[in-house]
């Protein structure tokens, strides 16, 4: 009986060990590969990748599963990691008690909480890569009025105002010129009439001033 | 008739010089000359360029100024005064200027569009927009670059072919309206307003170019571009295309034959020393071209280095990901070493990479020569988005483009309005302001056609095929006239500036110049005859490349259009030969030329 018990114990541990191995492997059906590029993202401020960071990753992923399923059945132990490389890349699977969570669910969970996962590691969608999970882009901000239209409005109002001012001022100038010309014409007519009785000016040569005056006022 | 007293004039000769500089220094100096430098052997291109300037550009420039200043009339009147049979040449000038005005202001509209879009926290051409599911970027943008996408899709909303008309782009139409209003405000009172505006339009681009020079040469990788430019490849001088391109560039850069210079000079004082001014303006124009190409090449170098290093970065990442090496293992500097190393150590694994492996080469990046709107709006904005504080550089750059374009537009529009204002009938019934306004309105309405989805293709057609032949013919006539009436010409010049032109002018006006122009003219006629269908590059949304699309189905229509333009000009010229004495005039053979209508 003891041997039977021992045998069953051995077989069950072997089975669980095999199961645990089958859970996380390279190219696992329900697993995803993760790649981190810490030094590219942070440069001098890069932190070394160690077990604590891995623990944080597993915890964040468990958080993401909790948010997605709205239940608290996921823990750090639910996330299994394997095939760690110096690149800092590894595969992970998520298990729900005994069975593995499907790839689609994991993907959806990751996409919803992507921002939180990224910020836990101070990385971005490009530097914390989930291979085959498309990134979630920030929804484009649609402002009420496109900003270019505002600048355009300002500039075109200024130009309009300039045009109107210039046209008005030239219109006013023309009016004024017309007024002055009319006065000048009147003066000329008066001068012509008086030219014949104009006296000879002093300090001039024996020159017929009348002739000079008359010729200067007849413009062609 | 003492029209000389009533004709408006520049406040001082400086305004005239600045107007000519503003007109001559235009977009071509920034986007055509650096391209030619690159295509024809870098620094070596300066040799044919300067030779052509001395033999062809300077004499024609001086002659146009002389004619304008002597006749004190726009191009139609001036040519009619030289000989009543040549009135058609003046009309051809005006028609060519109208064609140019129609499409040139659309480029200013684009500058406005980019300028207004620079006032944003993130420049819109810096990143691709997200697609509808927010899983990635738009396909069209991913396949091309964000700057190309912004230009072809968001700015132009371009259609696949010239046949697909599509509606007007409202944003473009608004910007075109603004551009024409700005032009109107600058020419509304003729030289009185133009004279004041040119102080700004002539000097501002130099300020920006200087700032960009400092910024450009301090950019990382600028030295690569400058080295590339200044290493002359003198074997290019043996290529006849180099010389022809140099001649054509001088020709278009100085804006000869459009009638703008005649118009500007017609407002001059009779004794203005145009000879010195012509030399000054031509030298300033060429100097600006060289200055702008130094700036452009430092920007090229920066962009090429940036792209080259990005390529190396991608390669590094690819190697790291495939071989799962730590990030410290490969740096951007030793990527090429590691490529060979890994190929030797893990050949089979390396073979899986073969289709993803890019070849990064700085030379190929530098060799991508771009000209025209591609350079100004795509390459430069790509470089700007990678600079620190890109909004500032963007605003500076597009304001500069705007001022360059505006300065040239002032000349183009003046070339149209001056002959119109000279026509007694029009100037009696309409005031200057109204006439100028009508010209601007007319050009605006027709120009709206270039803001449609296929507008850019039409613009390329007009730009590439519209003007060359007629301009060459006009300038040939100019030389011909100079040749025949050389004595009378010399007398008039002596009358104006006090001394006769020296031997250099006589040789180029009467000897070398006409030969060069005839040569160019024959060359372009041959090209026209042999060239076949005009082609343009089309933006293929699905392939997302810019390929050469000879439009076979539309070719006959296009050719007809082009032929129409040339034939129209030639018709006008020939028409005046066959219709003598259309204008009522008093023509004096001995005492000079007097024109009266």
From TrEMBL, chain A:
Residue ranges of the TM segments: 148-168
Transmembrane listed as a keyword: yes
GO cellular component annotations of the record: extracellular exosome; plasma membrane
Pfam families, sorted: Collectrin
Keyword list, A-Z: Cell membrane, Glycoprotein, Membrane, Phosphoprotein, Signal, Transmembrane, Transmembrane helix
Ranges in coiled-coil conformation: none
PROSITE patterns documented for this protein: COLLECTRIN_LIKE
Signal sequence extent: 1-20
Localization per Swiss-Prot or TrEMBL: Cell membrane
Membrane topology classification: Single-pass type I membrane protein
InterPro entries the record matches: Collectrin, Collectrin_dom
Domain Collectrin-like stretches: 28-220
Gene Ontology terms describing biological process: positive regulation of amino acid transport
Region Disordered: start-end pairs: 182-206
Chief location: membrane
Entry protein name: Collectrin, amino acid transport regulator
Organism of provenance: Paramormyrops kingsleyae
TrEMBL record, chain B:
Membrane topology value: Multi-pass membrane protein
Main location group: membrane
GO BP terms, alphabetized: glycine transport; L-proline import across plasma membrane
Cross-referenced InterPro entries: Na/ntran_symport, Neutral_aa_SLC6, SNS_sf
GO CC annotations, alphabetized: apical plasma membrane
Pfam families: SNF
SUPFAM superfamilies: SNF-like (SSF161070)
Domain of life: Eukaryota
TM spans (from-to): 12-33, 45-67, 79-106, 170-192, 204-223, 243-267, 279-300, 395-415, 435-453, 465-486, 507-530, 565-584
GO molecular function, one term: metal ion binding
UniProtKB keywords: Glycoprotein, Membrane, Metal-binding, Sodium, Symport, Transmembrane, Transmembrane helix, Transport
Ligand binding (Na(+)): 24-25, 29, 253, 285, 404, 408
Subcellular location: Membrane
Annotated signal peptide: none
Family that this chain belongs to: Belongs to the sodium:neurotransmitter symporter (SNF) (TC 2.A.22) family.
Protein name: Transporter
Species in which this protein is naturally found: Paramormyrops kingsleyae
